[in-house]
Amino acid sequence: LKLFLKTKDDVLILGCSGTGGMEAALVNVLSPGEKMLALVAGNFGERWAAIGKAHGMDVRVLEAPWGEAVKVDAVASVLEKEKDIRAVFVQFSESSTGVAHDIRGLARLTASLPGTILVVDAISGAGAMPLETSEWGIDVVVVGSQKALALPPGLVFLSLSEKAWAKVEASTAPRFYFDLRRERKAQGEGESAFTPPISHVVALRAALDALEAAGGVDALVHNAGTLAAMTRAAAGALGLPLVAPKDHGDALTALYPPKDLDSGAIVKALKYEFTSTVAGGQGRLKGKIFRIAHLGYYDATDILGLVSTLEIVLARLLRRVGTGSGSAAAQAAYLEREVAR
Amino acid sequence: LKLFLKTKDDVLILGCSGTGGMEAALVNVLSPGEKMLALVAGNFGERWAAIGKAHGMDVRVLEAPWGEAVKVDAVASVLEKEKDIRAVFVQFSESSTGVAHDIRGLARLTASLPGTILVVDAISGAGAMPLETSEWGIDVVVVGSQKALALPPGLVFLSLSEKAWAKVEASTAPRFYFDLRRERKAQGEGESAFTPPISHVVALRAALDALEAAGGVDALVHNAGTLAAMTRAAAGALGLPLVAPKDHGDALTALYPPKDLDSGAIVKALKYEFTSTVAGGQGRLKGKIFRIAHLGYYDATDILGLVSTLEIVLARLLRRVGTGSGSAAAQAAYLEREVAR
């Protein structure tokens, strides 16, 4: 897990899904009443704010329009004005829009402030885009088992810097199952504080062995980048607008349907005719977009197949003849990435 | 799950292990500062008290010597004196000693008090001993996937009475991942508030189907009762003192080793020579006892095999000749239970 996250710190394992990991990160580094800044660029950014409010934190929100990232400059000016912000919370990949945040730039900001840490929800971003936890100076990274590592959901992984651990020791927030002090001690002794999801831990070892054999996290990140480039190229050729045209990440691609088409019809046709799972929208984008994943086991063949079936589905729904232009664009993007390599 | 717990209320599923389920139960039915009564008869009773303290509850503890249950009369007299106790927390089966609490008697007490509920950690007790959640008037039951249901750890199940739900709605304790209001709404719509451990949920369905085919929870409980009776009979014949001679349950049997023998030596010999996993002690009984489980897939053949290998191990460690008396006693107990049936 240290290799996966490129961290020099120990990585803790908790038995829960991503939201539990986010809550564990938050309640361990803040005390009730302390000020936090949530960068909100979509559904999962809103979750950071909601968890903070549930635990009595003084929650400051910096929002970007859905489809855009919160910019480092905007964060810098808030931190400049409000010196009592103790932690900044952000998504590496905001799964509701496909936006990626500039984690490196944000970490540079917080690294210069002795009392402020950066907490990154990298649940769907780690393993899809380059992430240098220790080198960039990220204080807390949260990752889930079910994204790039392609395990079932049920485990989260947390890496904390020494700067973050000092906050954990000082926090007065009530916590028990998610108490990282207890887990640090137990897992440091090769145990766990409470019964862990054993089958997931065994599967994790297999997944990490397979990842190592396949070239490690850099190969996984390169693969996601290729699939994302292919998908964006196909979307351009097919006239499907990107939800995040400027700040898109490589974990997924979120697309608007063609004018006058229901995104749900596309999702359903792909699912029932081709058994392909493409996600709909979340939160305020529910029913308005569809999202294609590039994480984990997906490879170029999967994406080429999906783009082709998407062309069939669109041709039928739009009552027109497909031209293969999406497939051609995806193929060209593949060749450009892989020959350049 | 309703059949398994004999409850008329909906059963919620959470993605965590047993301790997370205990914490979820506690933080949803109490507000910080409210008075609770933890019945402590071992390691897991202490956990109820520790979770309450971590969340700022006013924790009253009623303790029994390890190896005994907390008696209903003692609870009645505390509740009589301290009218502001809002919830009583107890283990159905206290796994550290093998003690079972009189849940029916406790539920009769709390059912008569309009402001007080009974919260039962039935993680290892459900499916091992008769439990009538609704008929007895238990307000909250917490169960784990990895005990009688024989799934991997990673899921917990909670059943709450309407009396308990009123407390959930009133609670001001901070919570997010474990917020049962959110899960009740989402699971009522066939969804879940957050990503669930999907592979566990699929396995749960298979386990419940298998349970139904095997005669349901009553058959499972009968099986555990048989295995417990066999083990206690063997222990008597072999001169191994029960940790809980009077208040023993059927989920497990906890035994002291013969005088001058280290319990760890027994656990190790069974594990390395016969690949049988028998647990050591926990908390203040660590290194002093060993515990034999009767839950889930274990059957009479397993217990007879275990008793026989235990006789071999004891004979070798005590440098004496085995007589088969433990096996004979277990066989007799089996015949008595099954012929009587």
Provide an overview of this structure.
Two copies of one chain form a homodimer. Chain A is an alpha/beta fold. Helices cover 45% and strands 15% of the residues of chain A. In chain A, the strands form three sheets. Chain A has a seven-stranded mixed β-sheet with strand order 1-9-8-7-4-2-3, with helices on both faces. A two-stranded antiparallel sheet of chain A has the order 5-6. In chain A, strands 10-11 form a two-stranded antiparallel sheet. In chain A, β5 (93-94) and β6 form a beta hairpin. In chain A, α11 crosses α12 (300-317). The longest helix of chain A is centred in the middle third of the chain and has 23 residues, at 216-238. Chain A is globular and about 65 Å long. The two termini of chain A are 26 Å apart. Chain A binds chain B through residues 15-20, 23, 32, 50-51, 54-56, 144, 146, 152-154, 173-177, 179, 193-200, and chain B through 15-20, 23, 32, 50-51, 54-56, 144, 146, 152-154, 173-179, 193-200.
Topology overview:
The structure is a homodimer of 341-residue chains.
Chain A: H1 2-5, E1 11-14, H2 18-29, E2 35-40, H3 43-54, E3 58-63, H4 72-81, E4 85-91, E5 93-94, E6 99-100, H5 103-111, E7 117-121, H6 133-136, E8 140-144, E9 156-160, H7 162-170, H8 180-188, H9 198-213, H10 216-238, E10 252-255, H11 263-274, E11 290-293, H12 300-317, H13 325-340
Parallel strand pairs in A: 2-3, 2-4, 4-7, 7-8
Antiparallel strand pairs in A: 1-9, 5-6, 8-9, 10-11
Helix pairs in contact in A: 2-3, 10-12, 10-13, 11-12, 12-13
